[in-house]
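Beta-N-acetylglucosaminidase domain-containing protein, Streptomyces tubbatahanensis. Tokens?
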Amino acid sequence: MSAADGVRTRVLALGLALLAAGVPAVASAAGGPDGGRNPGRTGGGGAALPTVSPTPQHAERAGGDVRVPRTAEIVVGDHTDAAARDLLADVLKASGVRAPEVRDKPSGHARLTVLLGEATRDDIAEALRGTSAPDHAEGYALRVSRAGKGRDGGTVALGGTDAAGQFYAVQTLRQLITERHGPRRIAGAAISDHPSMPLRGTIEGFYGPPWTQAERLDHVRFLGDTKANTYVYAPKDDPYHREKWREPYPEDKLAELGELVEAARAHHVRFTFAVSPGASICYSDPEDVKALEAKLQSLYDLGVRDFSVPLDDINYTKWNCDGDKEKYGAPGRAPAAEAQADLLNTVQRGFLAGHEGTRPLQTVPTEYGDLTETAYKKTLRERLDADVEVMWTGTDVVPPEITNEQAEKASELFGRKVFVWDNYPVNDFERTKGRLLLAPYDKRDAGLSEHTSGLVSNPMNQAGASKLAVFTMSDFSWNDHGYDRDRSGARAAAYLAGGDARTAAAVRTFVDLNHMAPTFGEEPWQPQAPKLAARLDGFWERYADDPAAAVRELRPVADDIRRAPARIRDGVRDRYFLHDADRWLDATELWGEAMGQGLRVLTALRDGDDEAAEGARTAMDEAAKKASDITVDPDEHHQVGPVRIGDPYLADFLTGVRDQQDG
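Tokens:
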């Protein structure tokens, strides 16, 4: 099986799980003509459209739903994207179509005709009936039209501004197919959509154990599902990325990278190869420049067309060779920026300009996380080629917020729109020890798309567990004005749950217990367990007034926590997520059991049954100890320590129970 076939199989297994499960409409995620700020419109009094993620720029109901028949045809043209065509066939098959026929013109007999190709193709333009395809890269228009009165079936027009737009149109169609009562139906939608940010996706740029090849292949499929177009390969612990940057990759590793490039292309994801020479390069040495270009050439030969030369996490108070001192002077901010600009300009204007199909070079400057004007930024701003994309992490390495004002200032400092490298949900620093970071994306201003060229997430060491947060970040970067964190978080849970409502609810419970997102400061930028904290807030005051009612109200919370892991393990089909979350799921079940036993202690105390209270307390303490003894797998994470769940709220509740008994 080829890499593309393997990834396509995973699409059917997980990416189309929502479709196969028949996800009902949760709420309309569609936006109005103002760029996504208005709720989806029903038009003509019809039902609200199913939720689509990422949130479309404009969507409305254009008519009644179209029943999915057992037979259908796909009409393609000379410029129909192959990846979009293959995905469309998979979508239709998963919806119950036996064997979609691919034709170059409609047969006139099919009950369902799907037109796929460029939006300007005559038959597609006619079938869109005025639904405009945006004049925007990666944009698309989609319209679902029922057949004439008294007839079953209909026509779906999927028109892309370019090949990626066609692929994204199919990804949207996938989410418009629902099963409520009876056969699957395609919602009668008219959608005009495009991404707000040109670059969207992830950068594997963390410290610690890199992802496996299988995890990376799964991840680029996931990025395609969420309409993200960028995966930057920059694992800090790949020696050939950093320490051994001059050395060519061994043949087996090069073969893996080639497989990954092919898989990324199959999902319209740009595999961006990053090589980070800054810790040892001699900028003035032509041989080092040749070594760098030779490394880039080896990846170009694999099909890579996007490159990055990061210069982060290095020391610019010293040179790596005497030649740099002779050419640029004593080490310092301005000389470092001058040397770096010379290197990056050589790559941009020489190597990339001389290689067909490449896109602008990306870099991470040594000063990447502040808004202070320095000699380094001034020199880089004045000397660096205008086409080079400059990454910026916000006002700190892990910023508590990113505002439009901050992004505008950063763009001024670097002389171009910045490309945001957001260090979320990365968990490779001390304050994240023992944690999964699962909260939906938040505290980033709507309107950042006007000041930035893109946004990539730096995910966790745990690739599968990162999907929940990355899903919401893809939603934001596609349409920051239409983004709603609660709706996006619910949709991420539904995606992971394959559309099963009970499983999705369990996932949301698990997310709440793993909600904290620390910064390098004292206060986290995402709070821990906001829903659990709200349920526990004031519990002891209520307990003093009415113990029975207080316990009765809290018991469902404890039951949900205890039962969530089993529900997730039974309902989630993503083996990568289940593997990554395994120890946290174990701890969650035990903490839920401990909480339930704590409530039994309180009930027994109220009833005056000291023996039952003591037995429940023993069980409570045993469960809590087992939970506290679970540690992070050192093979998965270099920040090893006890697994943290719902802290400090769960432990504090148990302490309160002990105080009630001992007092």
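The longest strand covers residues 418-425.
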